[in-house]
Structures
1.
Amino acid sequence: MSIRKEPQTRWAWVEIDQGALRRNTRAFKNLLGPRQRLCCVVKADAYGHGAPQCAKIMQAAGADMLAVATVAEGVELRRSGISVPVLVLNEPPLAAIDTLLEHQIMPSLYTSEFAMAYGERAVQLGCVGKYHMAIETGMNRIGVHYADVLDFRREIDFHRGIACDGVFTHFATADDINGWDYKLQCTRFDEAVAAMRDAGYECGIVHCDNTPASILDASTHYDMIRAGVGLYGLHPCDATHGAIKLDPVMSVRARVTRTAHPAMGEGVGYGFTYRVPRTRVQICTLPLGYADGLSRTLSNRMEVLYRGVRIRQVGNICMDQCMVAVQQTPVCQIPEAEHGDVMTIVGRDGDSEITMDEMARLRGTINYEVACGFGMRLDKVYV
Ligand SMILES: *Cc1c(COP(=O)(O)O)cnc(C)c1O
């Protein structure tokens, strides 16, 4: 395995394929008509891929807006020179208002308290605070209830310090676009938007599609789509696999920090959940663990790639390290590893691949969570 780039101070890292990120961004852009926009969701440090770096690539590849989950994430984008509009996907605390206005980061809003405080401060500063109005249509998470949108707008629209730049909702079941639940959310959203327009309220950019809805249902693209997970080359559900080609962006790799041949019967790791079953088993140590997103629930159940071959992880995964076993079998005669050899935890090596989906299945979670986890402490290299 040839490595183009790796961090100086640690033998475990996340590799980000910039070309794949660029191609995926364009693939979403290609789903759209000329007047429709692409909002790239880069919350949680771009799903663990590194928000400032990813945002730059997305902006260059045609992103019209970026969305984050926290004000701090928005500030990080501005500090790294991002110039496209930035939207926070929920309503922050009132204390965040100065920061929002200073960095021109748009909040989502759904309480009149926030709207009024935001408008008051904007007037004091001699500017106008743009916002997107979140509409609750069925997920029961955030937003103004779909039946209350007119009352809400009547309460806040007189204020000259605020301006509605967009209205949106979020789907709970967009992996099933023929389902009744999805269709009901669509209807409620359509009706809420129509009611506001009929009453003369500015709606700005109308948007609702996350990754699955963007790929599976062109009829709900409206003025903008909000793509997240798909940009990183991960599919949100089985249904999207046949509908768009996406390339995985993140790989996770490590170098062997120690090799040993413990005697038969010796235990490996905390609690000895693995004991060396026979002679001539090589135990290799890799310097990443559950604090790097390699969940401890994977202990003794996952594999890594070494020279394009799957080998077993053995013993309990530690906070910062884990062990794997290289053993010769009659069908597999891979050479023993050496100190410094590269192993692949997620990604391709030769003809073999371990995907985020495989790891998510083993962990009983979704690829989103697996990617976020690896992004938390591992250094990222952009290749
Ligand atoms: C996270 C999020 C998205 C992106 O969802 P994906 O499934 O990753 O595409 C879009 N909109 C909102 C409101 C979100 O919270």
Note: The chain has a mean pLDDT of 97.
2.
Amino acid sequence: MENWQLDSVTRGQLWTTVAIIGALSWAGYAISLAIYRLYFSPMAKFPGPKLAAMTQWYEAYFDLIHKGGGQFVFEIKRMHGPIVRINPFEIHISDPDFYDILYATGKLYDKLPSLSNRYDMALAGFATADADLHRLRRNALNPFFSMSKIRSHNALIQDIVDRISARLSAEYAGKSDKILKVREMWGCMMADVITELAFARRKNFVDQSENMHAWFTEAISGMLVWTHWMTHFRFLIGVMNSVPGWVVKRASRHLGAVWEYREEIESQIRDILSGTNQQAKSASHETIFHELLSSDLPKEEISFDRLHHEALTIVGAGDHATKWALTIATFYILENESVHRRLKKELTEAIPGPDEIPPWVELEKLPYLSAVITEALRLSYGGVQRMPRINRHEQWLYKQWTIPAGVPVGMDNYHQHTDENIFPQANEFKPERWLGNPKVEVEVDGPDGKLTTVLKPLSSYMTAFGKGTRMCIGINLAYAEIYIGLATLFRRHEFELFETDRSDVTFVRDLFSAHPAPSSKADNLQKVACWRM
Ligand code: HEM
Ligand SMILES: *[C@@H]1O[C@H](CO)[C@@H](O)[C@H](O)[C@H]1NC(C)=O
């Protein structure tokens, strides 16, 4: 008995001692790491909050917790001077003229490897961190997205918009109780265009979906909602993949849609690889995957997983940003009577017969429509999360700062598009700011080392598609869809806003791309009411 008591006392003491030593060593490690990061790291000289320099949990707090998450980009704006250390490892620059240097044409910069897998599409070009491997993958896709290739798809895109238009006339026009949810309508269009181009198998959402609502939209939102969680807790991808699909589908509508989307794309790739996709063989256009399979990519680059990941990204990216830019455009046109009237007037004069919509190459020449589209792209942002680049070989110089090779540097379109020196009253939708090819005066270092003033076109500061070697590959397709979509629907139909205001489209949450509040009617997937004809 006595022995047993002694035993338990010693065992208790032993565990207490182990726990104390463990806690002390952890604290010691944490404190030395913090001291290193603050005073000895090569990043120590850059300005920024001490806490953010000490630990990545600072960023995680704003990404995940503060006001429901998605707030770090606003916190970065609050921190700013032109250059800030936003976390222990990364620099952020807010200076519109550095964009062309960081995202320089022809330069091979890496992305952050830690971001590669966050959407579980690590083998896609978009997610490829290594610059050389990215170039290989991107070059194989380039021909498919070239200007001439996209121009050749004009009739196909017009056909899909015509179907929307016919459905609006038949189902919505003149029926005051029938409410059209515009974001979903554009989502149907995007999903149909990209599934046709990618697989020659159109989903036919514009014809067949109830209330013109494509479940693809839900799947893509489902992925974006988890962006920050997947970034900060990378093991979650593994956890998710270990849960059977049917459990996920039952547990969550959003995640269920994500699963369904992955399975859908998977089966498309299987059919293409096994040669059972007859539509693709007889289609009047080449599909993305035929482009890839007939390219000179090495064999391991056209594996099932590689193609699956590439397809998930292209279909997702093709859907999301374009439909949001069109939603922003639609809202702001309808919100302001003078913008609406001026656009209508231009379209009516340029397009005498509403059934004969000119091709994109002609629509692009309409000045007011173009101004409306550029302004909508500015306020839709493209991406609002910073896009870090790593220069492995050389340092970057910015003003008096030398950024060591290998340090990730990021900029973002939120800072870019809301810079009041470039875009006065940046939060207002003002298409007029783009009319007449305006220029901005910029001071740069001249050849003699003195500051000189140069004129840069305002359009070079509209960076919704990014710039450089990693810029959006789908830019031509996106423009074609936006021009044809807006010109057709605004030439033919009358719309008015229904219980929708700016709060429904204003950017308040960064989920990689710009999102409005969760309660937004443009974003809320449960409600089917927004705009009516
Ligand atoms: C308004 C519409 C669009 C906007 C604003 C937009 C914006 C962007 C941006 C900012 C990037 C660069 C992301 C980064 O550097 O991390 C990007 C990349 C990409 N986009 Fe788009 N995008 C749009 C439409 C499209 C369309 C229609 C497609 C294709 C069907 C597409 C496919 C892609 C792909 C594949 C990438 C990755 C390119 C690479 O890493 O080489 N996007 N997009
Ligand atoms: C409507 O748009 C015009 C042209 O951009 C602008 O001058 C005017 O201030 C806007 N009106 C409102 C109420 O925002």
Note: Residues 2-40 form the longest helix (39 residues).
